[in-house]
Amino acid sequence: MADSRIKPRFWAIFSIFLKLGLTSFGGPAAHIGYFRHEFVSKKHWLSDGDYAALVALCQFLPGPASSQVGMAIGLQQAGFRGALAAWLGFTLPSALLMLAFAFSLTRWHSPLLNGALHGLKLVAVAVVAHAVLSMAHSLCNSRRKAMIMLLSTAFMLWQPEAIMQPLLILVAAVAGYLLLREQPVKHDILPPANTVAQRFTVSSAMLFVLLLIGLPIAAQFYALPSLSLIDVFYRTGALVFGGGHVVLPLLQAELVPTALVDADQFMAGYAAAQAVPGPLFSFAAFVGALLPGVNPLQGGLLALLAIFFPSFLILHAVLPYWQRLAQFNAARAVIAGVGAAVTGLLLATLFHPLGTSSIFTLSDAAFALLAFAALQYLRAPPWLLVLAGAVTGMLLH
Length: 397
Fold this sequence. Notes:
The protein is an all-alpha fold. Helix content is 77%, strand content 0%. The protein has helices spanning 10-23, 27-42, 48-60, 65-104, 111-139, 143-158, 164-179, 195-199, 201-221, 225-239, 244-255, 263-275, 283-290, 296-325, 329-355, 362-376, 382-396.
């Protein structure tokens, strides 16, 4: 467990998440699979139960769920500096790519490029399938837990709206409390957070609310483009539920009708955001660089910082209390139910949209199956599969 080991330093955490930021294609569901492989299976910083608890917590919170999972892992390992290192490493590659695309505003259509991207999506299918199987083995090891998992999968496939995720997790929490209190909960509670995070929980919560209320007021009184930019992106990061894809219509409603960003440019950036590794929220860097009245580099960086800053504040405010609550037996049963539901949600995502948007032919299915076998039985590193997927995609398409 992480609390029995020497805590990794800033640059160690940064380098690990930088590697993930360079190779984690496939969106939030795939990111959760990559994180689990790195920090549960490989480094043993967390147990499956700990990891499922973090994923469940971040599904409840507004903001980019997969990035928040990474920040929370960094926070547990090295406090605020660890969270900063995790965010910076995971976000830097995609942010730089999106900034570069904003500066160039050119589109490169190539069959080879499209084939490489398709191969990367097939790798993402294998990564998520591997994560689902491993999590189901440890978190759904009874009939009642398996029932919660399968019902969560069925409801998510039936009603795939973003609001269903937190609702299903809430229902699973109640089901865990009612059905799993008499069953042994084998996973551990979350390891203690760094004391710095606990000391600033109240101030983080107060600052979160103060900025959420104060920034729109300040933007009305002071007509500064940079202040308006911070207001828009902070509110988006603070209020969006459902992950990275939900941020796109919110930003479009804020920026396109007012002609702050051209609709064609906005959609071009959206397409580019699907093609880069790391968090989809890096799309903010692209949009910020296009806003008028602000230097493009300054606008991109301000938008990126503003949209992620609420996640830092929320995690600092919530994580220590979440950990204390998890010490009670009833709460552990709730976490067990939520862990089963998280596995079900990941299984639903494996079918749709990952599977339906990636597997079109028998060769696609065969490659995804081979990649899964390489992960499951050969313990192949995900970065190697990413490289193989890109090359194979170019050769087949």
